[in-house]
Task: structure prediction
Amino acid sequence: MYETVVVRDLVKVYGDGGRVGPVSLTVRRQEVYGLVGPNGSGKTTTIRVILGLQKPSSGTVTVKGYNPFKESKKINLFTGYSPELPVYPPFYTARQLLTITCKLKGLSRHDAKREVDRLLDLVGLVNHADRKIGNFSKGMVQRLSVGLAMVGDPEILVLDEPMLGVDPVGRVQIRDILKDLKREGKTIIFSSHELYEVERLADTVGMLYMGRTVLEKPVAELLNNRGGGMRVVAELKKPPRPETLERLRTLKGVEQVSAEAERVTILMNGYDVREEVARILANSDSGLVGLKTQNPTLEEVFIQVVENALR
Amino acid sequence: MLSAKALTTLVAYQIRRSLARKRLLILIASIFLLEIVIYLVLTRLPETLIRPLAGYAWIIGVLAPSTALIHVLALMVGATTSAEEYEVGTADYWLTRPVTRFEYFVGNLAGGLTFLSILILLYSFFAAAISSYVFGPQTGLTVLPTTALSTIVSVLVFYSLGLAVGELLRRSMLSTILAGLVFFGSFIAETYLNIVSVLNNDPSLLDLAIYLPTWGAVRLASTTTFNGLDAPALGTVFLQFFTAIGQTGETGLLLANISAYTAAALAVSWIRLRYTDVTRKAL
Result:
């Protein structure tokens, strides 16, 4: 697939000594890319460099072959952006700002009117179209921000924490919009703290931790990887003895063993040791009732990756 | 090439933004209040004193704000035009649309200047109208466009200085204070040089004053106005009095002073915007 956004060894050093990088990621055409990581991990910096708002200290960034810092206008013609905690001129109404954005994107007056009506409807702001943005709630501004990003039907959408501050109904609306855009074949980069959202929407996930990329993989591969990141839940007749748990922990490839009453959860990384687990438990005096395999959630994978990075 | 769409949008945006700021509105109101107070005071002067200058009363109203008030307003508009965009985060909006940094710079610059120009034209017209109403037909009104244009040119110094400080610091209040300090510092230094020069009978000290930023900004409008009016022929008490407060200089030198400060400040602003990150206080 065609590589749309390519970030290679991006390092950004701030005046106060703060540093992000090295970050490397590749976003392919028509792919939904989830950028995840805790606060301060470099998600917003990476996004701002991709958009040309910030200049990298070293490394290269290209968007469809263009240099964002030098050719931001070209990039902004086919890109839509919704920032984290968006702020817009408070004296404009939603309709006015959408119209201005249409004008900047080169839409004719007639097309702009149609586009504004379409977007107001899409983000659920029809009833607030002529209210000043200064009177909007945080969630409404966020929805307007998503609408603004979609003006002119851009090929690439960059959404920094699009669900932040949005109420549950708004979240569903934004999620549905993203799903539709995914179906339409848009390239979407979005960052989020909420791994559940990323798991549901993204094709590929890039994990940042302490300013650097710690993992970049297709979500499906990450969650269905039988040999790595797999979780096995064993049901026993009786709670297990500590020595049984200790034997499980010493197995090669077992990351974590936790017990809760008659249930033991074993996290594996890199090796499939289900047979050994079953043998140990069956031979123990706890008595094995059943063994089932569960895919780990993205959150568990993330924690595991972070723990590995810290070692 | 600059996009006309981007420029007109940014100019309209800056005018709208300036009108939404209470601090600026208070200063604008005080300019018009000053006009009213001036004419109120003039009507209270003795008839013998007012008669010879009645035909030129418009000059006082048109030039009075250019002594200080319009420059303070200009530096406030300049400082907030750039700094507030980063502080609030609206710079992000503009620079992630199909707008180059140069278009953003020129659009903002033109927007603030258009706002100031409209204001100058409005209060100049207001002064001419009110003086005609109070004192009857006015003489030399043909010079009014030159006076207004000179005032617009003269505000460039502190407008661009405010813009440069705002771009460097990216904090609107701090930028306004700092640009204000430059204005008042220069004003005080110029007054001090004038007084010392008179006391010591040393005109060479006045040569130093021409390097100060207020020198061109404060003098240009009055200089072009009196040159246009053929000042020596007037010979009124009024004009002597007004010439003393609205000091004049050589137009070429005044323009050189204004151009130098404006060019330097704009260059600093542009370099800062062109080569550095778009910052956002909230992040």
